[in-house]
Structure formats: C-alpha cells, structure tokens
Design goal:
By secondary structure, this protein is of the alpha/beta class. It has helices at 19-33, 65-75, 89-98, 116-122, 124-128, 140-146, 191-200, 220-231, 247-259, 278-285, 298-302, 315-321, 326-343, 347-358; strands at residues 2-8, 37-43, 49-53, 57-62, 78-81, 104-109, 135-137, 153-155, 177-184, 207-214, 236-239, 262-265, 289-292. Helices cover 39% and strands 19% of the residues. The strands form two sheets. Strands 3-4-2-1-5-6-7-8 form an eight-stranded mixed β-sheet, with helices on both faces. Strands 11-10-9-12-13 form a five-stranded parallel β-sheet, sandwiched between helices.
C-alpha cells in the first residue's frame, strides 16, 4: 500500500518533538519496515520541497492545500488525515468526494477540546460527508463519542517502540528516588506545579528532581518559564529544542525514562496534548510510577494506583505521605508490567491493528 499521513504545517512534522510526532513517526516507520510506501504530506509549509527521512519515509512539504492534494492524488492510495484548518475542510470534503473511488480516506481523531461546541465542530465535515475508511480514535472516550454517529471508529493507542519496554528485573534501583518531568514548559502541562515541587519536599535530599523541557517560540508563557528555568540554580533543567528530533534524542529519552523512578505528568487538562498522552505510555513501558491526574481515560489506561492524583491534590503532598521504599516501587513496577501486557501498545502490535483495520 501507498499510505500518506496528511495535515497542515504545525499540526505534525517528522522533525518536531511531541506526542503526535512520535505517534506518526513510529507508525510510519513500522509500516515502512513491513514493505509499505509511506509519506508525510504537509501543506502550508514555509519551505517547500521533497526529502527522505528515517529509513525511507517520503516528506512532501507543499505551500498550499491544492498542491498537497495533487501530491496525494498522484502518489498514494491510502490517506491518514490529521489536523486541517477549519477553512480548508470544505475543500478537502470535495476532494474526498471526487477521489472516493480511487483513494481510501482515514482520519486520526486524537484531541478532546475543552468546549463541547468545538468537539462537535471538529467532526462536522466527517458528518456532512463521511470518510470512506476508518476513524482511528486515540482514546476510549473519543471512540465512544465517534460511535454515536459512525460505525467506523477504531481504538488505536499510541505506539511505543520496543526499546522503551523494561521488565521489573531490568529496571535499575537508586538510593535517592529519581523524579523526572518531561514536556513543554507550558502552564497547561503543570510545569509550574513541578517547579514548586522541590519547595514542598519535607526531605529534599530523598528526591532527585530533573526537568526536561522544550517550548514553542510563539507561546509567551512557555518562553518565560523556560528562561526562568535556564537561569536558576535550584532545579536541574535540561532544554531540548522543539524542532530537534533525531534518533539520538529518542535514544536519550529511552535512557532517561529507564533511569527514572517517578515520571511527573501533572496535566491541568488533556486538551493540551493528545487524548492518551504518548508520555504516559512511554513512562509505563519504562515501568515509571506515573504521577498524573484522572483526566479522560488516564485512570483506565494506567489502572488503580496510589500515584494517581485526584483533580485537586498537589504532587508534593502526595509524595511526602507515600513511603519512600523500594517495596512500594517494586509493587508499582510489577503492576504496570502486567498492565502493559494487557494493553498491548508496542509499535508492532499497534501497526498490525492499523493494517488489519484498513484492510
């Protein structure tokens, strides 16, 4: 099959860092390994042209929607649709209608806007003229919502590369509990709570906190927080450029998570990320105890745990009342290990599920 991953510039890009980028890179890479031809078709790009990335993924950067659709019509037979600007959806609807006998159009439903009106509007074009392929839903609640108006919904959890997966025996132990935050330096991600965390530790020497952050240049709060972190001395801060993806960056993330006992994901809301966060799955694969809140389907994915906060608890309060013992982490690692086997979100299984659905 010739499969195009299609969307607007800024919604996804092979060389950027983020959940949707990790998802598309891994899925595309596994499809390529299985003998399929895969391309990323991006419209509205400031620099246009074609190149090849990774092990052979074709990257097509086009200035306009019309040029991107011409590339799809000429070179592909399956299209996985990501985000399009609302003003472009009617044109894309017309294209789907015109090409319906030659191309199979699928959609990745990955976000859950805070506003119910926005959630309704995000599906308007699909309800006006249904996709002739599958609607891949990144979370159970999205699949449930899609199922109210379509029978084409398929649950597709974010794929995680095999390198992340550890067994309880292979996960290292530390005298000091290694606590890690990874993500954008934006308030919605809970970064300000992480910054305050070291002040809440009753015994600071018992915890080793590191923040791995990246930021969008056009997000003023994210830039402000990054600059503060970069100039302070109390918290260990490692900055990763937002457009700095490389296999080496991925290898470093694998190592960081392998060495982390606790992963902090204190989202204030899930609308700032894809609805099943990739970092949640990566942390689970690495057997990190994940401190996060019960938004969306996170409680179902992660499972019952003392590390699952309620919506108003502060991380520092919960960390201070948890016993800092290897026994607690041992129990949590074993529980997560069993949960991972139940969920089956390694890249090979997710790609197989995807191919079975579109076939």
């Amino acid at each position: 099959m010739n499969i195009a991953f299609f969307g607007s510039y800024g919604a996804f890009d092979y060389f950027k860092i983020g959940g949707i980028e990790s998802l598309t890179r891994r899925l595309a890479g596994e499809l390529l390994r299985r003998g399929h031809r895969v391309g990323f078709v991006v419209y509205g790009a400031p620099t246009t042209g074609d190149e090849i990335a990774g092990a052979g993924i074709n990257l097509h950067y086009r200035p306009t929607l019309k040029a991107a659709l011409a590339t799809i019509a000429h070179s592909y037979d399956q299209v996985l649709t990501l985000y399009l600007h609302p003003r472009d959806r009617l044109i894309y609807l017309q294209f789907r209608r015109a090409q319906r006998h030659r191309l199979c159009f699928h959609r990745l439903c990955n976000g859950w806007p805070d506003s119910s009106l926005k959630r309704w509007a995000s599906n308007l074009d699909a309800r006006l003229y249904p996709f002739n392929g599958r609607l891949f839903c990144i979370s159970l609640r999205i699949k449930k919502a899609v199922s109210q108006w379509s029978e084409k919904g398929v649950l597709l959890l974010p794929p995680v590369s095999e390198a992340y997966f550890l067994t309880p025996e292979s996960k290292p132990w530390h005298q000091t509990v290694k606590v890690t935050y990874i993500g954008r330096t934006e308030p919605a991600k809970g970064i300000e709570e992480v910054i305050n965390l070291h002040r809440l530790f009753q015994n600071p020497s018992a915890w080793d906190l590191t923040i791995y952050g990246f930021y969008h240049q056009n997000h003023a709060d994210a830039v402000r927080i990054h600059e503060w972190l970069a100039h302070q001395q109390e918290i260990r801060y490692v900055n990763t450029p937002f457009e700095g993806y490389s296999p080496g960056v991925e290898d470093n993330l694998v190592q960081v998570l392998a060495e982390s006992d606790i992963l902090l994901l204190p989202y204030l809301r899930l609308s700032s990320t894809i609805d099943t966060p990739v970092l949640l799955c990566e942390g689970m694969a690495s057997l990190c105890a994940v401190f996060t809140r019960p938004w969306g389907d996170i409680p179902t994915i992660y499972g019952p745990s003392p590390f699952l906060l309620n919506k108003v608890e502060e991380m520092g309060e919960v960390l201070n009342r948890l016993p800092r013992s290897q026994e607690l982490l041992k129990q949590e690692r074993e529980r997560i290990y069993q949960r991972n086997k139940q969920l089956g979100f390694n890249t090979e299984m997710v790609a197989q599920h995807f191919l079975e659905a579109i076939s």
